[in-house]
Amino acid sequence: MKRTKLYKKALLAACLTATGYVQAQQSAPIVVKASQIVSDVQPTMWGVFFEDINLGADGGLYAELVKNRSFEFSRPLMGWKAEQDFFDESALQVLNRLEQNTANPRYLRVTKNSNDTHLSVTNEGFRGMGIKKNLRYDFSVLYRKPAAGISITLELLNTTGKVIGTAVVPVDVAGNNWQKAAVSFTATDSASKGSLRVAFKGNGSIDIDMVSLFPSDTWKGRPGGLRADMVQKLADMKPGFIRFPGGCIVEGFDLSQRYQWKKTIGPVEERQLIINRWNFEFPHRAAPDYFQSFGVGFFEYFQLADDIGASPLPILNCGMACQFNSAELVPMDQLDPYIQDALDLIEFANGDVNSTWGKKRAEMGHPAPFHLKMMGVGNENWGPQYLERLALFTKAIKAKYPDFIIVNSSGTDPDGQRFDYLNTNLRAANADVIDEHYYRSPSWFLSNAGRYDNYPRKGTKIFGGEYAGHSDRVVDGKRQNNWQAALAEAAFMTGLERNAAVVHMASYAPLFAHSEGWQWTPDLIWVNNLQSYGTPSYYVQQLYSLNKGTSVVPALVNGEALKGQDSLYASAVVDKNTKEIILKIVNASATPQTKDIVVEGAAGLSKNAVLTVLGSQDLYTINSFDNPAAVSPVTSQVTLSGKNKLHYTAAPYTFSVIKLSMGAR
């Protein structure tokens, strides 16, 4: 930690050159033309992409601590361990009421034949349960019991089996109808890998279902809500949009596993659990306990977007399963239900409370509309089979909602025959937005900083929907989110910002990863059961989002955009609301680069500017739970050397944001 602090001090010293030059070669100045507006920057420019991968939802964002709470996994007692001191094979039975309840058919019948014996089931949680000392925990269960005689007690356990919290569950009502019992209690100690024991006392039989345990410190204190520290990481980015629910899970391995939004709303006990495709996608990172409970469903996604001030961007299945897996298709003459789902979703988000789907939204606690303005049709789909299905969606949506924005897939890669075919045909159809994905090496990002310089300014816009610099294989786990990748992403993003007339949205992917449950690396935010931290890439994304500005202005060297000359990359925006000029500079080289920054067309520049620097002398530096701020922003104040000039040295391997105030007196 001391070494990190010393480096950051040295980093600032290397970057502050207002009082004189440092030992570095100075070349032509960076000229920022503050009055020459190139284009507007969309409010949605920088956003986040969420997919339930890497235990992103269950075991992550969704704060539920009990795994397989409704016994619906393919192995009904997965995650549960039975304990009894008198062996009785009939003590625990999983029953199936499929004909009566297709969404939640299974439940557990517990039978205890003696007052003097121990019988319990213990839930292991998602790679354990994160328990915090002195925090209240809220337990609930659905139950029914034919007669009095059996009771339930709870014990929170730490890793060694020590009891760190107890409660008695009030299952007092006897009869054949399902009841809900709830109790709250406080943990007496912390545990990173705790567990919950549900013990049965007395003599008799009881049925249980939806066994649930939530911490009380959820986001906004909502019962059954989201994990607060993870949401706070998103809120701290101030994203312009949130894309959900994916990603490949939208498609499913086959269509039976596709994401169906209507099955993710309403009471949680009525949301039908399905397998998560990341359960088995990578055999060497298989997660046989990875399912989707949909505790985070479409209502919660919309609510989350509303909470953090982001525009919602849902992605819907277009009648195609994953083309890498099964390539299953819905016949064209059977596509109407899929299209109706899209139309109904717009009504669910925006409809009057008296409309069919607007009423359902209101019943869930949000009578006000969610102001949905855009939707993706398909995810990484390709070929003529995609285009013909997309055309039917587009016709139906535009007929009812002419101004609604439809995001179109460009497939899996940013180039090649598949991309060219889609790009050509989508532009010919005057598509609103094309979603481009690029998971590539850092060198690719550096060399593609000018990718959009020659894209058409009018017509179809671009969504950089999924991108990340990969210094290693995505399923290797080595060098996770190192500074080399983040620095290259920062350089590439200068090109996105410079071309905001073309690029209206961009988001890094994936968003979350559990340290013991990941399938894909790198990722933006890492979590364990008690902690979370942002990666170097997180801070790059955050600095862009917090310094978005309202208008792009030129930042030129010798009359040209700075996109790799001398390993420097730059872009500039003006914020008309704060009256600031914001310059972003990336030095991707191992040597310092000195520049005069000259501002033209801005009256009354303040003599002081705000400098924020992100960097590391080691390209393979990563953040971690032990050192979450190894690569993190350092902010200071610098002084202009003249009326409209700043001497600046970009230290090696740094991303710098310089904010200059206009209109000072």
UniProtKB/TrEMBL annotation:
Its EC number is 3.2.1.55. GO terms for molecular function: alpha-L-arabinofuranosidase activity. It comes from the Bacteria. It is an enzyme of class 3 (hydrolase). Keywords: Glycoprotein, Hydrolase, Signal. Residues 1-24 form the signal peptide. InterPro entries: Alpha-L-AF_C (IPR010720), ASD1_cat (IPR055235), GH (IPR017853), Glyco_hydro_b (IPR013780), Glycosyl_Hydrolase_51 (IPR051563). Residues 465-654 form the Alpha-L-arabinofuranosidase C-terminal domain. It catalyses: Hydrolysis of terminal non-reducing alpha-L-arabinofuranoside residues in alpha-L-arabinosides. GO terms for biological process: L-arabinose metabolic process. Belongs to the glycosyl hydrolase 51 family. PANTHER family: ALPHA-L-ARABINOFURANOSIDASE 1. This is non-reducing end alpha-L-arabinofuranosidase. It comes from Filimonas lacunae.
